[in-house]
Amino acid sequence: MRGIIPIVAIVCTLLAGSMVAGAIESSDFDDPTVCKGCHAEIYNQWDGSMHSIAYTDPVYLAEEEMASNETDGLTDTYCARCHTPIGVLSGEVPPIGHENMSEVSKKGIQCDFCHNVNKSTGIGNGAFMVALDGFKRGPYEDSKSPSHGSMFSDLHTKSEFCGMCHETHHPVTGIPIEETYTEWKEGPYNTTTQCQDCHMTPGITHFEANPGKASGIGPERDHVYTHYFVGGNAAVTGVIGSEVHQQMAEERLKSAATLALEAEKKVTEAELTVKVTNVGAGHKLPTGLTEAREVWIEIMATDASGKEFYHVGGLDSDGEVDPDAVMYRVVLGDASGNPTVKVWEAESLLSDNRIFPKETRVEQFSFAIPEGVNGPITVEAKLNYRSASQKLLDSIFGKGKVVAPVIEMAGAEDTIEVGKKAPDEGVPGFESIFALLSLLVVAYMVRRNGK
Ligand code: HEC
Ligand code: HEC
Ligand code: HEC
Ligand code: HEC
Ligand code: HEC
């Protein structure tokens, strides 16, 4: 059990960092339905978000249990801290699971947790502190409520707020497991666009004002931040029936990237250049749980009759992505240097080929053009996203029970003329023979009509 002492030490430090004077109880926090009374619209946006189910998400619960079993419970507090902050602050976790938990703790990352955060002790691993002083912290300097104190909080308006949790390092090995904040901080959006601008406004890839009321009984505002907290998860939002969030995740994925395709004929080969650009994500593409997320290129070529003769990046009969596909992801290594998706085992970063914000990645493909193919050839390229591999989902839900939708983020088509005289070939192609024949027919008709 190497690492036991460092984990305990780190967990204790994390816990100490969150303590306020006096013990915290889950009953110190109001249930989100209390806030709903006056903030109905915000409540409805949050309800069904990944934040609202962070501690009931079946994928999370399965992984949490596996991690706990494999480490004799060492990961319990560590994992739960970001997934049920109230559960950990109030001491209801450990143990993990839902046995000891109050209703409010089960509701994951919710209103009264975020709006009682008064301080951050840094970035990552749940570096938050809360103050239970009756004040709700938010973006307004002039806000008045009949049920609570209101206080402006600069932290809430900045990426550093999200960075307390959207940055995970292995507590013992220090291996970065999630680095969304750092990817943003080191990228081109760090001075212009906060996480909130893209994830809490209708803009998706930029700030877009959302005029209205923050509370039914409050004043009209030039802008009210939305609370859908949508990322790329169209799988679990689908499982729990959050249609609005699922659709918004698809729309977000489709705004994140562009794909350009150029197909060229070189003698008997087709040469393809695919350019993928991360145009809309303020961090790498993909980000977050990147040892599980799958973003890859799929290419298909068909002849004039629609018959497919080339395909890379498709799914096999078990629903797995073609191992030859170009895939953008992180591969973590365990103690023996073998790839693992179990983050608690991570001792090294084997590879990371994800696309930086605003970066264009150029990929080359080629295939032999079958002899006598019926042209023109249509080539189609797609950039696909899937929340997790089928193997991972099968291990949690049972074989084929849950299928993560494959979302086409971007796509393009090009055609290759075949059969005609290509510039570097000496033989007349099919099309020039056809043209010659047509000429002969025309000449014959002219002569016949002339008789
Ligand atoms: C009795 C009605 C009522 C209830 C219940 C209520 N609020 Fe409010 N809240 C308001 C009003 C009114 C405002 C002022 C809106 C404005 O300034 O535009 C407000 C403002 C806020 C603000 C903005 C603070 C700022 O300074 O930026 C936050 C955050 C907030 N509420 C969170 C909550 C949370 C969390 C809950 C549940 C624990 C809650 N509210 C419950 C009425 C209520
Ligand atoms: C993950 C943390 C988080 C959760 C969960 C959350 N909020 Fe917020 N909320 C924020 C942040 C951050 C802002 C301010 C964004 C900014 O200024 O950039 C905000 C802003 C607000 C405001 C000010 C008006 C606005 O929308 O701009 C109100 C009121 C509010 N939240 C209420 C709620 C209620 C009610 C819930 C639960 C249904 C809730 N919040 C859940 C983080 C959260
Ligand atoms: C207390 C920790 C915590 C804070 C603070 C927090 N998040 Fe999260 N967030 C999470 C966790 C945990 C999940 C994943 C829940 C799950 O998948 O089960 C998540 C999920 C999300 C998702 C959905 C990802 C997907 O795959 O669809 C988005 C988007 C998101 N958060 C954005 C934000 C933004 C923006 C902020 C800052 C305003 C923020 N979060 C603050 C912990 C946090
Ligand atoms: C310029 C707009 C923009 C900014 C800034 C931005 N995001 Fe995103 N985010 C996106 C888009 C678009 C996607 C969907 C593509 C993807 O998954 O990367 C996304 C996806 C995500 C996801 C889901 C990743 C997955 O596939 O599971 C999370 C979590 C997330 N963002 C959190 C954050 C956090 C935290 C910040 C700030 C540190 C942030 N984002 C800043 C646009 C942005
Ligand atoms: C520092 C905060 C933090 C810690 C600690 C943490 N997580 Fe998370 N977790 C997140 C965030 C943020 C996301 C959302 C990222 C995304 O959607 O890509 C997430 C997403 C997940 C998901 C994806 C759920 C889905 O539906 O796709 C799983 C599974 C998960 N975490 C398991 C764990 C386990 C197991 C541990 C402990 C070994 C752990 N987490 C520790 C913040 C944390």
Heterogens: heme C
What is the mean pLDDT?
91
Structural class: alpha+beta
Q: Count up the helices.
A: 15
The total beta strand count reads 19
Amount of beta strand: 15-25%
List the uncertain runs: 1-21, 421-428
| Biggest sheet statistics | 5 strands, antiparallel
- Any idea what the shape is? globular
In helices, the fraction of residues equals 25-40%
User: Rg from C-alpha positions?
Assistant: 28 Å
Number of domains: 2
* Terminus-to-terminus distance: 102 Å
Q: How would you explain this protein's 3D organization?
A:
It is a single chain. The chain has 451 residues and is α+β, with helices and mostly antiparallel strands. It has two domains: 4-221, no CATH class; 254-416, C2 domain (Immunoglobulin-like, Sandwich), CATH 2.60.40.150. The chain has helices at 4-18, 32-36, 40-46, 58-70, 76-83, 85-89, 103-106, 111-114, 159-163, 180-185, 195-199, 236-239, 243-256, 390-397, 430-450; strands spanning 117-120, 128-130, 135-138, 149-152, 168-169, 176-178, 212-213, 220-221, 257-266, 269-278, 294-302, 308-312, 327-328, 330-333, 339-340, 348-352, 360-368, 377-386, 407-416. A hairpin with a 2-residue loop joins strand 9 and strand 10. The longest helix has 21 residues, at 430-450. The chain is globular, with a radius of gyration of 28 Å. The site of one heme C (HEC) has 30 residues, from helix 9, helix 10, helix 11 and helix 13. Residues 30, 34-35, 37-39, 111-112, 115, 136, 138-140, 143-148, 150-152, 214-215, 217-219, 221 line the site of one heme C.
